[in-house]
């Protein structure tokens, strides 16, 4: 809550932890964080359609989830995207670069055992601590930057969803009305369970429901959403300098995660089949 009042020093992120655990989501649950690397054990990647959806084949073996369930996704577009992740791995499989695969594993195994309404309420709860709703009064330059950069996206969200959000310099944050929360609950309910997993993932990356919905609704780009989510950090970097390579790495990683989560949401909502396969010999 004291961000913006002291210079920040960003350190490199720790390496991924073992499979079966991972970052805490807004609902308190954990998503999968697979082992860091493994030697590539397959030559060819393909997709096939089964009874439960589209499957990923590594040579003649079908991909499984960490809980040994058959890896089956609901749309052909998503299957091709996941297959492309596996096909793009070189001699070593770098699991930490395969965000779509990890999201699919989370959707299939549902390690936190949450239902649709629990996912929705966890996402909407982020309104109470939304990054762009918390403002500083000083330094004046940062306060002005927040107003100029964050106010337009808040105004867009209020108009888009016909709600009142506002902002606050109080440590308690803005007072979000019950009607505003119910409106977002109703909107999120229009997404399927798979897409909701992706939405929650994007929210945890950006620390903002408002920025996440602006990104998913194609109102802002990934680059813009990430910049807005890191506004205070970037301001401090301009004043105090950055840690060599660490800030750039963190920025690129956040962009990759936000982009993957957004793509996941759209691919999970894709109903039409892909006529031309992207994976060709």
Primary descriptors:
single chain; alpha+beta; ATP12-like; ATP12-like fold; 2 domains; four-stranded antiparallel beta sheet; two-stranded antiparallel sheet; 10 helices; 8% strand; disordered N terminus; ATP12_ortho_dom_sf; mitochondrion inner membrane
Q: Could you please describe the fold and organization of this structure?
A:
It is a peripheral membrane protein. One of its GO terms (cellular component) is mitochondrial inner membrane. This is ATP synthase mitochondrial F1 complex assembly factor 2. This protein is α+β, with helices and mostly antiparallel strands and 281 residues long. The chain folds into 2 domains: 45-109, ATP12-like (2-Layer Sandwich), CATH 3.30.2180.10; 116-269, ATP12 ATPase (ATP12-like fold, Orthogonal Bundle). The chain is built from 10 helices and 6 strands. The strands form 2 sheets. Strands 2, 3, 4 and 5 form a 4-stranded antiparallel β-sheet that branches. A two-stranded antiparallel sheet has the order 1-6. β3 (53-58) and β4 (61-62) form a beta hairpin. α2 crosses α6 and α6 (193-206) runs antiparallel to α10 (246-268). The chain is globular, with a radius of gyration of 20 Å.
Please write out the topology.
Blueprint: E1 37-39, E2 45-50, E3 53-58, E4 61-62, E5 72-73, H1 76-87, E6 92-94, H2 99-109, H3 116-124, H4 140-161, H5 178-188, H6 193-206, H7 209-216, H8 222-229, H9 231-240, H10 246-268
Antiparallel strand pairs: 1-6, 2-3, 3-4, 3-5
């Amino acid at each position: 809550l004291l961000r913006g009042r002291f210079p920040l020093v960003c350190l490199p992120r720790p390496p991924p932890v073992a499979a079966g655990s991972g970052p805490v989501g807004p609902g308190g649950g954990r998503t999968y964080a697979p082992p860091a690397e493994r030697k590539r054990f397959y030559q060819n990647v393909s997709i096939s359609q089964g009874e439960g959806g589209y499957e990923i084949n590594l040579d003649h073996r079908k991909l499984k989830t960490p809980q040994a369930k058959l890896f089956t996704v609901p749309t052909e577009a998503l299957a091709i995207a996941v297959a492309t992740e596996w096909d793009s791995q070189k001699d070593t499989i770098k699991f930490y670069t395969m965000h779509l695969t990890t999201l699919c594993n989370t959707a299939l195994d549902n390690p936190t055992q949450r239902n649709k309404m629990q996912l929705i309420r966890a996402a909407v709860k982020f309104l109470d601590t939304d990054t762009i709703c918390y403002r500083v009064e000083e330094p004046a330059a940062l306060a002005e930057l927040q107003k100029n950069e964050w106010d337009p996206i808040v105004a867009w969200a209020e108009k888009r969803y016909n709600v009142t959000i506002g902002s606050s310099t109080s440590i308690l944050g803005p007072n979000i009305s019950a009607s505003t929360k119910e409106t977002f609950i109703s909107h999120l309910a229009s997404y399927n369970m798979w897409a909701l997993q992706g939405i929650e993932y994007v929210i945890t990356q950006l620390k903002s429901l408002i920025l996440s919905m602006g990104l998913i609704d194609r109102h802002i780009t990934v680059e813009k959403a990430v910049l807005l989510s890191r506004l205070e950090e970037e301001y401090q970097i301009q004043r105090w300098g950055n840690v060599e390579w660490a800030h750039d790495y963190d920025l690129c990683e956040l962009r990759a995660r936000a982009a993957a989560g957004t793509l996941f949401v759209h691919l999970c909502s894709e109903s039409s089949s892909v006529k031309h396969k992207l994976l060709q010999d």
